[in-house]
Structures are given as C-alpha cells and as structure tokens.
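<purpose> Linking amino acid order to shape
<body> The protein record starts here
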Amino acid sequence: MKVMEKMTIGEYVATDFRTAALFSNYTIDFCCKGNKTLAEVCAAKGLDIHQLENEITTILESNTATEIDFKSFSPNLLIDYILEAHHKYVVANTPVIVLYLDKLCKVHGERHPELFEITKLFKISAAEMGNHMQKEEVVLFPFIKMMTAAIKDNETIVQPHFGTVDNPIAMLKGDHETEGNLFAKISELSSHYTPPIDACETYKVTFAMLDEFEQNLHKHIHLENNILFLKAKELEEQFTIID
C-alpha cells in the first residue's frame, strides 16, 4: 500500500487511463496537478486513501481495458496522435463553440448573464491554446523528432536555441495550468455544463460541446505532462548535444 500512496496521480493515469474517470469523480486533477502523490491528494481533500486504493486496484486488476496503452508509444507516434486527436480537435471545434456562445449571449444573456463571462473565458482559452499549440508544433515537437532521428542514426545535434528541453516543457506546463484554471471557472459558471430549464437546443448542444472540449483538454494535457514530456527528457539524456 505504501507504494500506491507514493505514486503520483499522473502515474496512475499513465498506467491505465481508466483511472482518469475515477479521479474525475473525486474531483482530483490528473492533468495539470498530476504530479501530486495519492497520499498528498487524499490528505488535502480529506479522502479515505484506503478506499481510493481499493477502487484503483479494482480498475487495474480488471481485464476489460480498452484504452490505448499510450506509455508504449514511441515519442514520434505519441506526437502524431496528439496532433491528430487533440490539436485538430481544437482547431475544428473552437470556432463552432465561439459561434454558438455568441448566439446564446444575444438570445439568453439577459436571463443568464453568466453566459457573457463563460464566452469571455472561452475566447481567452482559445487564444491561449492557439499560441500553445504553435509552440509545440514549431519548437518542441520537431526537436523531439530530431532527437529520435539522431539517436537512430547515432548522430549528434546542435544545441537548440532554448537550451535543454526542460525550458520549453516548463513553459508548456505553465500554459496547461492556465488552461486548466480557465476551464475550471467555465465549468463552475455553467453548473458543470448543466443547461438551465429554459435552455433551447443550441444551449444544450453548446454546453455538451464545452464539456467534451474540457475532457479532450484534460486528456491532451495528461498525454503531454505525464508521458510525452518525460519521454523527451529521456531522449535528451541518451546523446551528446554539441554547441
């Protein structure tokens, strides 16, 4: 049990993503704050650690896992997956959600003024995500692929302008924290994406899309913070970078 207490939330989710649903039920942040141990989280939230350990064990020992084992992915494959399943998702869904939110503000804003704050926060989030993904696609992801190729061909590479991968990773983790906080506020303002009684179909669809967007964001952050970034650091340790 002591081993379980010392494992981080992110390590559990990296081992079996089915634990993410369990942590979400307990409002435990497995992405932005996934570096906290199970013992630390339970102490902070007043949770029964033994009960949580038993529930985690039940999940880990069950044979019904259908979730992809992302830890087994090579860094390059994981990058490709993130681009396809998360970056493209953000690009495709952001303008639709903005359009719907603007419409809701016009039609329902007088009765539900919280919509204006939700819309403002989502637009901030969208702008931040656009900048964040560009940093990944232009800076970190290409360097990870360059390191992979260099190791395969037994070559060295030139020191990048950002120094060690720890620097862009720290910046990207900061972005993740910002995104997590913005969506925590959106979730709270929307009563966890529960449409009001007088909600029209557009209202219901918009809240459902926001809910899905946040779930996609959480998985996106988890794959990077708890798996890809660690693989990037391991890659960097395998060869010499010349000045």
The CA atoms of residues 5 and 40 lie 8 Å apart. Residues 114-152 form the longest helix (39 residues).
